[in-house]
Structures are given as C-alpha cells and as structure tokens.
Amino acid sequence: MNLILAITLIILLLIVISKLGGISKALHAIKGEKNNEMLSESPETLVWSGNPGCFEKHLQRKHNNLLFPDEKRKISQRDIDLAVEQDLRDIQSIETDYKNILLESYKATLSESITIGEMSTIEDKLDALTIRCFEVGGASLQVLPGLRKINESVSADIQDGISEEDQEAARTLRQAREEYLKKRLSFSNEFFAQLNRKGTPIKREDVIASLLSEDLETIKLANDMGLSKDLNFLAEAVIIAHKAEAEGADTDILREKLKALGVKL
User: Fold this and answer.
1) Which of 256, 246, 178 is nearest to 218 (CA)?
2) What predicted TM-score, i.e. pTM, was given to this entire model?
3) Which end of the chain is more exposed for a tag (fewer CB within 10 A), N or C?
C-alpha cells in the first residue's frame, strides 16, 4: 500500500482526535451552561445547544409546531437535557469507531500481505460509519470530509491492487462501486438516516408531520423514493396540513411542500 495514503491517515487521525475531542468537550460544556442558566432563568425558558444531534433536533422540530398534535408541541428543559445526553453518547461512540477505523486503515497501508478482500472490508466499515454520522447528525457531520478522503484513498488502493491481467474484474468492481455510491448518496440525508436509524426518536405516527417540517429538498427526495405512489400517505399529509392551516400555519409554505411530496392541488 502506498506511502502517501499512510501519511494522509496519520494526519487525519491527529485531526480527528483533536476535532472529536473538542466536540465532546463542547457538548459537555453545553450541558454545564444549561445547568447554570436554569439556576437563574424561569422554568419556561428553554436552552438549546447550538448544533443539535438527532434527538435534540427532533424536539426542536416538534416544539410549538402546528403540524404536530398539541400535546407533542410542549417540550420541557428536562426533555432537552435527556436528548443532549443521548446525542453526546452517540458522538462519543462515533469518536471511538472513527479512531479505530483510522488505525485499522493505517496498519493496512503498512502491510505487505493485505488482500483486496481485507481492504474491501475496511471500505465497508468506512461506508457504515459515514451512514452512522448522518444518523447521529449535529457535530458528527464534521468528520464526513475526513471519512470521504480515506474512503477514496482505500478505493484507489483496491483498484491499484488488481493485476493488469484482471482488468475485467476491475471494471466490474468499479461499476458496482459507482452504483452503490449513487444509491447511498440518495439516502445520505439527515432526516431519512435518522428516521430509519435504530431507536429513532421519530415515532411512526409522527413521520408525516416530521417530513412536512423539513425543507423542500428533503420532501422532494421523499417523492423520488416513491412515497408519492402511496395514496394513503398523501391523503394523511393533506389532512395534517389542513389541520395546521386551520390553526394558523402558513398556507403557501404548506402547499409548496405538499406539491413537492407529489400531492395534486
């Protein structure tokens, strides 16, 4: 494996240890700031972090949002604190996994006997961690550029490791990889990654209200994924939007979102 990749991995490892360590400290600091502020602020004052992860972001999505039932719009400081704690645990898990995969990749670059299959396994782990970053959201997204850089280097090393006599295998591998990346790209969206993650905070009955709370790009992606073919889903979306409009939600914005979802108005 090439020396340039080894040097790149060393540099990225140092950056990641510094960056993720800073993220963890920042989240702990956020918790401390909340505790201090709650000593002097009224109970009605909610203190949010500046870069919410999956769980806190869903609370922000529901807070005073007319698309949700009234009882789900009410968020307490306790709810926020628990969500931040969960997001912090997720960040720390990513920190550990990221360091491990970087070290594994670095050791692979020094090995004279590593196989294409073993490199492909590392590539799969990098892909899985990339998806995990979208599932966690918030500060974890800061490590994505580094993951992509390593993944590109590992992929290039795999291609270089295929002999000239086996170029057909190389083409097949490259095409499969390109198709996979194209498919993964369509699902590299925070909302859908967090919706489908294990232990998602987005309950089944809240999926439509949550989706309609997202930007047009995310809603159009839902359309591309085929949700516009589900007539029951679209009908429920219209009902939820109309109820929100009746309570004072912006009609123009909601209609744009319904159109993006595939509703014929």
Assistant:
1) 256
2) 0.80
3) C
